[in-house]
Amino acid sequence: ESSTQTTPAAVRYLRMLNGVTSCQPVFLPPVVPVKMAATVISARWIAPIEPEASKVLENHAVAIDGDGIIVEILSHDAAVEKYPEAKLIRLGSHILTPGFVNAHTHTGLSLLKGKADDQPLMEWLTQTIWPAEMAFIAEESFCEDGARLAVSEMIRGGTTCFNDMYWFVDSAARVAVESGIRAVIGMIMIHFPSSYAANEDEYLSKGHKTRNEFGHFKNIHFAYSPHAPYTVPDATLQMLGSLSQENNLPLHIHLHETSDECLHSLMLKKDSSSCHMSTHASRPVANFERLGLLNSRLCAAHMVHLNEEEIELCARRSVSVVHCPNSNMKLVSWLIYSSILIKNNFFFFRSLGERILPSRKARQGWGECRDRNG
After folding, report:
1. What's the pTM value of the predicted model, to 2 decimals?
2. At what angle do helices 234-247 and 284-291 cross, to 10 degrees?
3. pLDDT for 328-349, tens place per residue?
4. With the C-alpha atoms ordered 305, 189, 159, 121, is the resulting torsion angle positive or negative?
């Protein structure tokens, strides 16, 4: 009996179409499901980042699927025709933009915002903030309530992602999970004991414990967050730098925030609270270069006191700088010269920091954008 007689006609037909004459399996290409939109947001203007950030689209719409993922951007008419069953939201006089990223926050401290105006940074920290913290942060609920207030205000102001650094890191993580906002949770490190941890080992172990607990959530990411060069010694910074590389996590730190930090570190003026904890007489950025910490994983907040050599070096090392204009002005720290950083191709305007602290009374991303140029 021939194979032609025993092979079903449909299979013989498929083999013929595919040029197959022997009795081998026929594999058909997989069927790719067409993504459908559950919601269409139509606006007078849309300012996308991709594929061309400088181009503003007029009378366009964003199609979003049921999981909140953008399917595509297309003209309003095309969206209405293609997705007739989707929920349509019309924003006839609005500009639709991607969410803001607040790249430097201390959410737990939002309950103290507005406390003590017009003080230089170290006076503000040592005489106002640190004593107030010691009075309140013994209760973890303080940090969680502060994070909940901060996140509520961020969402209301259009911020959809924040990069946090504060005590009781699991508090901010829980609030981020509850609200759905994206967050980079900083695993705080400081050389001194606190209500949160007694020593550096405990700071690190508690940070890793929180990462293990919340790391599976898609909207939660982590960073190592040593507070500053004047509160964390070189050996600890190097250890965190190694962990940052090993786990491919950012290193988020205050750096070059005041002129005293730079000058007193260069002089190695150990009687100054602004002097870095290194035994090397150098400006902090130069010391970070010596320690191998200037790289693309470094997220440096403030950076308002940079000379030309430091700007060129940080740009060459792909360091990310977070500009906090309102905080810098309020604490008399100075301003970043934006045009110089842009000229040097700095990783700079990817984000702005509002530094959610008593140093920043509001949480409005547009205000930070208006004040960004020094």
Report:
1. 0.82
2. 60
3. 666 555 555 555 555 555 544 3
4. negative
